[in-house]
Amino acid sequence: MGQESEAQVKWLTTGVVAATGALWALTPLAFLLVGDPGRALLAVVLLGGLLVVYARIVARHIAGTSQGPHRARIFLLFAVVVYGAIPFLGSVWIYTPLIVATAGLLLLRFRYGVGVLLAVAAAEYPLTLAGWAPVPVPALQRSAGVLVASVVAAGIVHYARFVRELRELRVALAEVAVDQDRIRMAGELHDLLGQTLASITLKTELALALADVDRKRAAGEVEATIAIASEAREEIGDVVAARRSLDLGAELSAAVALIELTGASCDLRLGIKKIDEETGDALGWMVREAATNIVRHSDARHCVIELDESGGRVHLLVRNDGARREAGPRRGSGLAGLRQRVGRLGGALEAGGTGEGEFEVRVWLPAVHDRESGHR
């Protein structure tokens, strides 16, 4: 299990156990309200011990891992503690068998878990009649209450597991989208190199064949081969250096969609309507690379993409709140290549953590690109 998945299991488990503990705490509180601190303390000890075991069960269930070979024994522990305490704790304790039913649904196979649920709910009726409310209607109400509460408690744990699985699926889909873009780029390079190398091979073979027959024509074929290689190098440079034109508006929309696909929210704040073509092209690649980094290298829950203009310079901010702690500096050609591109356009790029679990990329570029200096 990866670091991100472990973090999700931890906070989901914490939420479920905290809610469960709050509900279980109502039993000792009831003893205090009726003026019985001794039984309240006993209830706290018993329920506290069961809650520790229950937390482990919940964590394993949310993580999708096996409950281990001793799940039947753990279930019996819940049953013995809960039903064994009924003679000592009386009517206030009568609702706690729902803990046994919930444990059965989480620990045992489905058909056995359902059997335990029905058995616990059915047993609640005679227990209530025998000890505390020898009237059918209240006994039926308690039996139905235990049944419903057990299903709800187990359902909350199942829901937490579905939340974890759904978030992981969203992240996987987002990474697939990123990979598809990389594959598209690789396909372009493959097509370009395949055609170029085939032309170079043919012309080289022709030059070799003409070397002893027509040296002048052979030299012409060699020159043509060199021209093809030079042109191919420029075209490959355009692809690798990301010089092809991008639509900034489309890239902003695609970035928001990609980030939200991971389950995070993304605020897009635009304070500019028109932008220079060269500057917009560069910013489009900044947005694409920043969104890719968020998907690949963060556990973001909320992101902000902000674009505005001030003092003749365009400012782009991409911030997320899920910066990961990594053992060493992140080494990648993406931001380094973009930093060089920004520098060629007379701008500046800053990227790094803010010290509050956030990571942000800031880019400043001239609002109007100086094409003469840019092509110098």
TrEMBL record:
Q: Does the keyword Transmembrane apply?
A: yes
| Record keywords | Kinase, Membrane, Transferase, Transmembrane, Transmembrane helix, Two-component regulatory system
The protein's matches in InterPro entries, at most eight in alphabetical order, are given as: HATPase_C_sf (IPR036890), Sensor_HK_TwoCompSys (IPR050482), Sig_transdc_His_kin_sub3_dim/P (IPR011712)
Keyword Kinase assigned: yes
Signal transduction histidine kinase subgroup 3 dimerisation and phosphoacceptor domain sequence ranges = 182-244
Report the transmembrane regions from the record.
12-34, 40-58, 70-86, 115-133, 139-160
Q: Name one GO molecular function term.
A: kinase activity
The protein's matches in SUPFAM superfamilies, at most eight in alphabetical order, are given as: ATPase domain of HSP90 chaperone/DNA topoisomerase II/histidine kinase
Domain of life per record: Bacteria
Q: What is this protein called?
A: Sensor histidine kinase
Q: Which organism is this protein's natural source?
A: Sphaerisporangium dianthi
